[in-house]
Amino acid sequence: MTSESLHFVDRTGQSLAREPDFWAALVVPKERIEAEAERLADLPQPANGRRSSLIVHPKSSDPGLGLAPGIRVSLDVLKPGEQTRLFRHNATELNFCIAGGGYTEVGGRRFDFERYDVWNHPSYTTYRHVNNTDALQVRLTYSNAALLERMNVYIVDEDPPVAE
User: What share of the chain is helix, strand, coil (3-state, %, to 5)?
Assistant: First the structure.
């Protein structure tokens, strides 16, 4: 690409305000969440260990699929004895355990959790989830990954170094 392809857009005296595109409120019924968790649990464990479905608002579009503008929500499932591979990305996450329990390693530190516990993963910190229980682990994960994808600045490291 050369500077010849650069161009200027004159906005002199124009308002920069845009009318927001408000999304209607949406309820995700418990039955739909439970059915999707069961469907995910029936799948073989993938190589990265993550069984996950995004919960996507009908007005959302790629890049940046989300439940609200800029907010990604996923339903994540681990069977007893399973764990995810180490992972990091530049999104900040909040996890909410809705069934089962286990622990998460964040930056090399272990955090045990059970149903209804909530915890976060700071941006670009390595983590993995482990289900060391006899029950299905089901989590809702909230992040700003949708916003980062939309801005084309989402960075994912599928094989990060082990935290010290």
Answer: 15, 30, 55
Global pTM reads 0.91
Q: Give the count of alpha carbons within 13 A of 89, CB side only.
A: 15
Residues 6+ positions from 5 with CB-CB distance below 8 Å: none
What pLDDT does 2 receive?
Answer: 83
From first CA to last CA, the distance across the chain in angstroms is: 41
Phi, psi (deg, nearest 5) at residue 95: -110, 140
Report the C-alpha gap between 155 and 60 in whole angstroms: 21
Tens-place pLDDT, residues 145-159: 999 999 999 999 998
